[in-house]
Amino acid sequence: MDATTMPDATPPLPALPPGLLTALTAVLGPKGVVTDAADLAAWTTDWRGLYQGATPCLLRPASTSEVSATVRLLAQAGVPMVPQGGNTSMVGGAAPDESGRQVILSLTRMNRIRDVDTLDMTMTAEAGVILKSAQEAAAAAGALFPLSLGAEGSATIGGVLSTNAGGNTTVRYGNARELMLGLEVVLPDGQVFSGLRRLRKDNTGYALKHLFVGAEGSLGLITAATLRLYPPARATAVALCAVASEDAALALFRRFRDRDETAIRAFEYMSGIGMGMVRRHIEGATVPVEGEHDHYCLVDLASSRADADLHGLMESVLEDAMAAEEVLDAALARSDAQAAAIWRLREEHPEAQKRAGASVKSDVSVPVSRTPELIRRASAALRKLIPGSRPVPFGHMGDGNIHMNLAQPEDMSAAEFLARGHDIMDTVNEVVRDLDGSFSAEHGIGRLKTDMMESWRGGAELEAMRRIKSAFDPQGLMNPGKVLPS
Ligand code: FAD
Ligand code: MLT
Ligand code: ZN
């Protein structure tokens, strides 16, 4: 489209069916219905700025019965809905499309912790509770809710369950799914599935609750969850290590696992390029290991036993690894502040990358044993595809999930680089396929990856998913255009 054919102004958004807004306002009150275009902007764009959608309104129910009544009204009127939590999706999962027809249903007003039980070791939290608040509520009760990720100050319980988020502690505690015991869900017709059971054993037919975890809002709206708690960490040890190679990073993981698998809380890999971006773009970031290296690992050990000698374990394993020339240098945190500063170097990777210019993300997983090969082969293939581009592999090596991200060449425009986005992801995915991996590890499919579903999960698997979708959501109103290809 050139300037002469461009329309004078953006066409008005299609209106909602007559009377619907009034009926919604009667259910939600004026606080629960937002229609002002300026107020809506923050909700229609995703964290990465990949999608600029449009919506006729944002709905903010404050209770399960309000969600139910809202969904019933929207379903009767045939209006598509996009559930949204903290809007930190990396794959455009919570952003409406450009049609202007999709209503955003934000759960952030549902932010009550309903119950914490330190005998059953469970917490029941509403969908809009911020992950960090859930962690703090557990800590205040003397327990631990172990899910931890860079966006925990904004991501919500509904969001982390709907994406089956992973993060830093999957190696020890599993993904969000493993931390969920029960769910409350508003189904696409407005019915409430009340499954907030706190049972460790419950073999009663199909495990419905698990269908909603990782469904990215395509089967219904999670309104609350009963979550599994753990004893808090009473001894910890955190170190940043410069390692000789990708293989040395994996060898170090193995050394810790062989000595005491139960001690590993997180094992993260970072490349020299990523660390360089953090040094350059994040204020106050200092790397406690001298010089610049090509590969780093963050090792985090934790135990609920106060007398566990984790510093001793850390020092002893690192000494062995140094003798084997796998670890070149290491800094062991001597205080909580030093541990937090080391973690900051890892957690600021997404932000540093964002500030360093355009980047294309490939959130992929392979068997843990193949992570070094993934990093090496994908980096080489990406450099060949776009000379001058900078591979920034980092992430959760201990569970096989590497963010095989690529930063733009310094002399290429962001637009030109981003236009190659699909080539870049295909290049990584070719290696991933060869290594028996997955093209979507922890961020989900969202809008970004729906067109990959056919080739990765085609045949009987995709057909079964389509049948599940149409059984729950025959009108196709729940988060259309996400997860499944149309
Ligand atoms: P949103 O982004 O609002 O929504 C995500 C998806 O869930 C959408 O499809 C949405 O429609 C759906 N949804 C949201 N709430 C509900 C609900 N109540 N019911 C039904 N569907 C719902 N992810 C990881 O897994 N590991 C990481 O280490 C990690 N690190 C990150 C670091 C940064 C800096 C950022 C910005 C993101 C990171 N993410 C990570 C991605 C993101 O934080 C997670 O996907 C998170 O689970 C999304 O939570 P949210 O509340 O923001 O959900
Ligand atoms: C992280 O682990 O920091 C995010 O999931 C990765 C990313 O930003 O690509
Ligand atoms: Zn991650």
Describe this structure in words.
There is one protein chain. The protein is an alpha+beta fold. Helices cover 35% and strands 19% of the residues. It contains 17 helices and 17 strands. The strands form 3 sheets. Strands 10, 11, 12, 13, 14, 15, 16 and 17 form an 8-stranded antiparallel sheet that branches. α8 (246-260) crosses α10 (310-323). The longest helix has 15 residues, at 246-260. The chain binds flavin-adenine dinucleotide, D-malate and zinc ion.
What's this model, at a glance?
The chain is built from 17 helices and 17 strands. It has helices spanning 20-28, 37-44, 64-77, 131-140, 157-162, 170-173, 208-212, 246-260, 272-281, 310-323, 336-347, 349-355, 371-385, 414-418, 421-434, 450-457, 459-472; strands at 33-34, 58-59, 81-84, 103-106, 113-117, 122-126, 180-186, 192-195, 221-228, 235-243, 264-271, 295-303, 327-332, 359-360, 363-365, 390-396, 401-407.
Summary tags:
486 residues, alpha+beta, eight-stranded antiparallel beta sheet, five-stranded antiparallel beta sheet, 17 helices, 17 strands, 35% helix, 19% strand, globular, disordered N terminus, binds flavin-adenine dinucleotide, binds D-malate, binds zinc ion
